[in-house]
Specification:
This protein is of the alpha/beta class. The strands form three sheets. The protein has a six-stranded mixed beta sheet. Strands 7-8-10-11-13-12 form a six-stranded mixed beta sheet, with helices on one face. It has a three-stranded antiparallel beta sheet with strand order 6-5-9, with no helix packed on it. β14 and β15 form a beta hairpin.
Length: 306
């Protein structure tokens, strides 16, 4: 029995090492999990992950890899009754529970009015909300960038929001959506020069038609985690030395980027986890299911009273 138990432990350790080693045979120093353009699809539906499966995937990969960052590329908190009738609160609570680290504001995240977005950020979000190019007066409305220490490495992340804003004008009165290209140049240089980061990530809600020129013209961005154009990039898209990733829309996929920074050169590999594949790998998070049930109950309470 003791020998059998030892074999189980050894097998478990072998599986853990294998999971934390990429196909190129080197250790994964950082795993990026990413979503974009969920548009309120936080409930389980056919062909969709919903937050119950997203949460379980995050838990699963955090159990397999030492260093994991979970990013969302915007247009998340608005789009379905379960989010809209609670002014985005249910989406934020679900993202908190799932364990997101950083989100960029997408254009539709302003659909409740920018004041509500700021209030959600200040009062409810346990993750960081970024945008470097949305200004109110002389300064950015939101935090432009964040620097994270991950293991032995320093990661710089800045946020870009599309300057082609498709939300009702009343929602953004007094705001200025400045050039994403200019912001990318400014904050890439800042993160490289002042923080000496090992990796620069642009968390962007601008679409591939904008992120590709940014990758081509702004030297020093390693990874662009993108949204807005609802593009399916199964293995990412390289533009020069920059990898662009996007996971289509509506929680049909979760993106995954394995990164090795300890070798002679930076190595990154992108892939997508489909809703069907997730169902083979994990069960939906029961705590998330309960949270969504509470959100539906709260909607009924607000509509019809106690």
């Amino acid at each position: 029995m003791r020998e059998r138990g030892l074999r189980v432990v050894v097998l478990g350790l072998a599986l853990l090492v294998a999971a934390a080693t990429a196909v190129w045979g080197e250790p994964v120093d950082l795993l990026i999990l990413h979503t974009n353009d969920i548009h309120g699809r936080i409930e389980i539906d056919e062909g969709l992950l919903g937050m119950p499966y997203i949460s379980s995937l995050i838990q699963y990969y955090r159990g397999q890899y030492e260093n994991v960052l979970v990013l969302d590329a915007g247009d998340t908190i608005h789009g379905r009754p379960i989010t809209d009738r609670l002014d985005g609160e249910s989406a934020v609570l679900a993202m908190n529970l799932a364990g997101y680290d950083v989100m960029v504001a997408g254009n539709h995240d302003f659909n409740f009015g920018y004041q509500q977005l700021v209030e959600l950020e200040e009062e409810m979000m346990e993750f960081q909300l970024l945008s470097a190019n949305v200004y109110k007066g002389d300064g950015p409305l939101l935090t432009p960038y964040v620097v994270k220490e991950v293991g032995d490495y320093t990661i710089g992340i800045f946020g870009l929001t599309t300057d082609s804003v498709s939300t009702h004008p009343d929602n953004v009165v007094g705001l200025e959506f400045r050039s994403a290209m200019d912001a990318a140049r400014t904050y890439t240089a800042l993160l490289r020069d002042e923080y000496n980061v090992d990796l620069v990530i642009a968390l962007s809600h601008v679409g591939v038609h904008v992120s590709e020129p940014i990758a081509a013209q702004v030297e020093g961005i390693d990874l662009i985690v993108d949204g807005h154009s609802h593009t399916l990039l199964r293995e990412g898209r390289w533009v020069g030395e920059t990898l662009i990733v996007q996971a289509q829309e509506y929680s049909k996929y979760m993106g995954k980027v394995e990164i090795n920074m300890s070798g002679e050169r930076l190595v990154m590999e992108a892939s997508l986890i489909s809703a069907a594949a997730a169902r083979e790998l994990v069960d939906p998070d029961p705590d998330m299911i309960e949270l969504l049930e509470e959100a539906r109950d709260e909607i009924i309470r607000r509509m019809f009273g106690d």
